[in-house]
Design a protein that fits this description.
single chain, alpha+beta, Beta-Lactamase, five-stranded antiparallel β-sheet
Length: about 120
Amino acid sequence: MQEILNQLNRVRGVGGSLLVSSDGLPMASALREGIDEAQLAASIGSVIEHSLSLATHMKLGAQKHLHVASDQGSLLLMSAGNGYLVVVVDQQANLTLMQLETKPFLERIAQRLSL
């Protein structure tokens, strides 16, 4: 998993990546130095829980991805089988292109998690 995240981080616009279990535990990490992966994973777990609840309440079906935007960049959370891939996206990155470029990495991670 680590090698997949390291390769993902080489994609232009990716500022780091994290694989999180659905209950908010870090599974693998390739984040920038100074970012507390346990704290980020726990926060992501809470976001996942709330967004799943919202999707269920609104009868939207299975959650695929979630985008959290801010003025300094964004987070892209994508369902990866038994976990979630979190990608830190730089401010200047094209989100649509980022989703296309991360898809092969997401598929590889989901495949490994299903084994």
